[in-house]
Specification:
It contains seven helices and seven strands, in the order H-H-E-H-E-H-E-E-H-E-H-E-H-E. The chain folds into two domains: 42 residues; 202 residues, Vaccinia Virus protein VP39 (Rossmann fold), CATH 3.40.50. A seven-stranded mixed sheet has the order 3-2-1-4-5-7-6. 35% of the residues are buried. By secondary structure, the chain is an alpha/beta fold. Helix 2 crosses helix 7. It is globular and about 45 Å long.
Length: 248
């Protein structure tokens, strides 16, 4: 009887765990569907949406995130990040981010020396989305080392694959590209690299599609991503680079 009772309890526990797993999976799928629908309404093309979903996967399990060079884009809210801090060196962008409530905390500071403002291991993940290419190689490496000091679990970069020319749009807005970063180079620094945004020949400044209609060429870009450039990041428009720190 005790053996039968034990088996029964194990069966109940197993069923409960299975139901919980199914619920979490369904909830995750529903959350992703809502996110995709929202991004489509915002006007993002399919390649950009898949890129954000890939980034979301990379941030899985990160509850406290530092967004380096955060600018005025609402990526953290788009991704459903629990708690984020934005740091930027351009005051007008940071003020706009505050007005839009894009983060929970804000810091005006030099992204090359983050350890001046934050403690070692302070954040689960430290990320810089399309930031490192705005620095010289020397300063980019300084920022990378600084980010790795204050990250507890992961460091994440996204950047064009190679050098992509871009000038400032406003006076001193720090938008000019000063360096290019290759997939093989980031791998040497210990990052896992995948290609995003499809073939680089389809996109120009700000990763915008060159061809029209946008939705059609976005679909072509998406096919190129899944069948080619995801696995060949040197040919992709951009690269997503993730380093998971040892012991995390």
């Amino acid at each position: 009887m005790w053996i039968y009772y034990g088996h029964s309890l194990n069966g109940i526990r197993g069923s409960r765990h299975h139901c919980q797993a199914v619920f979490l999976t369904v909830n995750s799928m529903y959350s992703r569907f809502k996110m995709v629908f929202r991004l489509l309404k915002e006007g993002l093309d399919p390649g950009q949406i898949v890129s954000l979903l890939t980034l979301r996967n990379a941030l899985d399990g990160s509850e406290d995130i530092l967004d380096v060079g955060c600018g005025k884009i609402n990526n953290m809210r788009r991704l459903g990040v629990t708690h984020s801090t934005g740091v930027d060196g351009y005051a007008p962008y940071l003020e706009e981010a505050k007005k839009k409530n894009l983060h929970d905390q804000y810091v005006l500071g030099d992204v090359r020396t983050l350890e001046k403002y934050f403690q070692p291991g302070q954040f689960d993940t430290v990320l810089a989305l399309d930031v490192i290419e705005h620095l010289t190689k020397e300063d980019g490496l300084r920022m990378m080392q600084s980010m790795e000091k204050i990250a507890r679990r992961k460091v994440v970069f996204s950047t064009p694959s190679g050098f992509l020319p871009q000038k400032n749009y406003e006076n001193n807005d720090l938008q000019e590209h000063l360096s290019g970063w290759e997939a093989a180079e980031m791998e040497r620094y210990g990052y896992k690299v995948i290609g995003v945004l499809g073939p680089k020949c389809l996109r120009g400044e700000l990763h915008l599609l060159k061809g029209r209609p946008k939705f059609f060429w976005g679909g072509i870009s998406l096919l190129g991503h899944f069948f080619w450039t995801r696995w060949a990041p040197s040919q992709a428009a951009a690269i997503l680079c993730v380093k998971t720190k040892s012991g995390s």
